[in-house]
Fold:
Amino acid sequence: MPEGLLNVLKPPGMTSHDIVDAVRRILGTRRVGHTGTLDPAAAGVMVLMVGTTTRLSEFLTARPKVYRAEITFGIATDTLDGEGAVVERADASALREETVREALAALTGELQIVPPMYSAVRHEGRRLYDIARSGRTVEVETRTSVIDRFELLDFQPGDPARALTEVACSSGTYVRSLAALAGAIVGLPACLSLLVRTRVGTQEIADALTGRELIEAVRDGRLDEVLIPPADALAEWPRLVADEQAALALIDGARVPAWAPVDAGQVLVMLEDGRLLCVAEALEGDGAMTIQPRRVLLSEDVLR
Structure:
């Protein structure tokens, strides 16, 4: 069974579920999951987990993201993007580049952002988009997002006016909501008219595989060449190399004394051959450091 991560290029017009289903068919396995969805109209990097790597979902979905996002000022839609029905228009011809730049700068740091009604967020067991399609609206709880960078790359004045931006943000950030907030700051309706995810964690769009390239890799027996070792996606985490005794204990879920210096926090435990054994947590207590496995990827069979 294939194991690892795939950096896949999602085209516009497909849902994230469509991408996962297609990769399952190409690889011949059901054990494929994603580390974060993209709206159907959006394009760009989708990092998929294959095989036992799906056990790392909680760690991999938390990776920061980078987007190229075009904001259209002067038009608002019910979905906050170009796919929805127009609900408001205003003359944006007086909007200037410096005003937009200042608005984007105001939207950096830790923000409380309301997810769009047309989103997959659940409210009392139902998806918000299902509630919105039924003609209802509900009060949606804000979510904390961290916007590390919100830069203006290009501005086209006019009516409507358009701004091409780059957003570096925490996982779970709704860029559509950011676009609407930028409009509110400059006093205009606004929506997201283009979205491309260019980076997830360490995975770049330049290295993303098209569907055809993945099919060719499988056909030519080169799948191992395009699968990314899961440890590479968490490359900034400290690493410990376990001997056989420590590895067997960790596989059994036991907490073991740290056998090498390490700071408290998350850590990757590797085998001597370079494979990731588990994601663990280094815990400090009573003057000693111990290693507690959190997600184990390998069984003791690999040590025999």
